[in-house]
Give the backbone structure.
Amino acid sequence: MFVIVDEREIVTAGYASGFEREGFACLALTPQELPEWVKTASEDDLASIEAFLLGECAERPDFPRLIRTYCDQAPVMALDERPSLDQTLELFACGVDDVLRKPVHVREILARVGAIRRRTMAEADNLEIGRIRVFFDGRDPIIAGEVFELPRRERRILEYLARNHGRRVTKTQIYNAVYGLMNEEVDECVVESHVSKLRKKLKDRLGYDPIESKRYIGYMLKAQAQEAPVRISETRRVLERV
């Protein structure tokens, strides 16, 4: 999920629409709303944020430090409408990770966020988990050696699971990452439907279900199927028969 801060609704609505077309959720906040929201947001909500985008506003110089007090992993980027060297230097001095000249396409923002994550967090632009290779630049994954086309929501869920490989993520975390925090038009239960469809498609291609699900605990992407353990007593009985 991307958080965009601007006092002009037309700006936030435009970027929200652009991110939506690319399969990413976007939370639009006014400069007055950001401080209260970032202070009260849950850890799950903050963990789902891909980046903060700061439009022009008087409070912008104070926002990078405020954001990093509560969320130190998501890049903070400024959207600059005036090509001014002094302002660009001032923004970097305030702590932003990058300055983007408007107009800027959503895909360029995604690419720049990916570049920042690779530099600062040692995060690759793709991950290979068993026979699943997931990309974070909008490309479809490669499953069992072949490009595997997925609807954007299912692709985003797979990307999120891959990025959190080895950890369980809850339905709420997936929902926040894919749909955003304030999308009242879509019920959180839709995540279960998308995950179910994704699991079936992956199982058909791989021959096993790579997404482990535990009720009330969450989902986890695994590299390969777990073989059922054979108890020692059963092994002994087989040997005795022989």
